[in-house]
Amino acid sequence: MLRRNNFLLKPTKRRRKKSGRTVFQKQNFVSKKQELPQQVEEEDVEEGFSLKASAPSHTHGVQPLGNLYFNPSSHNSRNTGLGNLQTLTDELVLEILGFLGGTHLGVLSNVSKSFYVFCNHEPLWRNLVLENCNGGFLYNGSWKSTYVSAYKPSFSVSNLGSSGLKVRDFYSDYLFQSWLCANLEMKPEWLERDNIQRRKGISVDEFVLNFEEPNKPVLLEGCLDNWAALKKWDRDYLIKICGDIQFSVGPVEMKLADYFRYSDQAREERPLYLFDPKFGEKVPGLGSDYEVPVYFDEDLFGVLGNERPDYRWIIIGPAGSGSSFHIDPNSTSAWNAVIKGSKKWVLFPPEVVPPGVHPSPDGAEVACPVSIIEWFMNFYSATRNWEKKPIECVCKAGEVIFVPNGWWHLVINLEDSIAITQNFVSRRNLLNVLDFLKRPNASALVSGTRDRVTLYDKFKNTIEASFPGTIDQLTLEAEQKKAQRKKLSFWESVTDAKAGAFTFSF
């Protein structure tokens, strides 16, 4: 069984391609709650990470591979239990097991202690639940118990997860890491950097001139003070007003009460996020409890009416949930307003790809660490020495952040949180959106709508009909600015050359 004073993890760098996986740089992990093993000098440890106070031991006694080096027997029961399959990586073993159904996983778990551990890996059962319970589910303490309850209601699952077999001398970084990421506290140094510009009470013209036009993030304070949602939106109110309405939670639809039941119990590295684009239509009362801040009133996608791509979402999630690095869809800008809780934001400008993130050349796919905590553990420190450091902040209840188009951003909830976010198209980014919609591979890039092929023509024609001459005027202004930048660049180079020549002759 894992002892908390004895886990040195040499992480397996895991990456996901939308929801796939990867492998990490070497790094050590220790708990601050206990002393290090006698064999390890404290100064040899690169970084220390503390566990949450409620963190349990790993369900099946799995230990990180580093602990094997301090085991006198040097025996890893992972290998003996897999037999000839021991040469496969843990990731590949789990990929293969992912093709099995619940019954076959249950049968295979009886073959050996090693297969017992692999077949009870919670993400396998999570996938089974999400793939087969499209109408929602009632979370029952663990994903395996949830699956069994759904398909065998008469079967008692009260002790299914709590009295599982503990396997001795089983070492695996890959299996251990999900548990570790689910139970790590955010380090203070991950939260202390706050270099975003903050403004309160600025005019719309100031916002456009200093932030929207130059495409820079800003955190706005005080512009949500009149929102009824700030006073009304607690858990009891939302459950009451939403009733049996179902909301989008990952690939499934769930009632709000059922989602809160899940979020209260679940302890996993990637908690499910309630992220629903139709909440205003489903529950009109929610839509009337907030209003768009004045800075974002102009939204040219609105000319499409009901045919516009998805643009607004209610977001609800527990601590640890959030969104890994991405760029907002369709080249839109966005605002995100926190109603309850708080969120940590990390943003990179369009020309800077975050460390550990690997977009495909056409931008259609993004490979990144499996979980947000994993990114902080393995890549956040690399940004300390970057010339172009990320923009960071903690956005609290009553605050709203402006996310300019094209910016990479990551968001993680620091506590149970509720937020509203909307994507929009203003005159400042209209040309960017039109360019995006007419890309050769637009059918693969455009999101939030079934009309991925003709959206460009439909949007452009409707804009020209609603605001005649606007596109031509914006195009002319963009060309003039581009020419001006070139002119300034040339003049500056000439001035520098003259200055150099003057100095030399002197």
TrEMBL record:
Region span, Disordered: 1-23
Protein name: JmjC domain-containing protein
GO CC, any one term: nucleus
Biased composition (Basic residues): 11-20
Keywords, sorted A to Z: Iron, Metal-binding, Nucleus, Oxidoreductase
Entry's localization field: Nucleus
Pfam families (alphabetical): Cupin_8, F-box-like
InterPro entries the UniProt entry points to: Cupin_8 (IPR041667), F-box-like_dom_sf (IPR036047), F-box_dom (IPR001810), JmjC_dom (IPR003347), JMJD6_ArgDemeth/LysHydrox (IPR050910)
Primary localization: nucleus
Domain (JmjC) ranges: 281-441
GO MF annotations, alphabetized: cis-regulatory region sequence-specific DNA binding; metal ion binding; oxidoreductase activity
Cofactors (names): Fe(2+)
Species of origin: Nyssa sinensis
Keyword Metal-binding: yes
PROSITE patterns in the cross-refs: JMJC
Family (UniProt): Belongs to the JARID1 histone demethylase family.
Matching PANTHER family: ARGININE DEMETHYLASE AND LYSYL-HYDROXYLASE JMJD (PTHR12480), JMJC DOMAIN-CONTAINING PROTEIN 8 (PTHR12480:SF21)
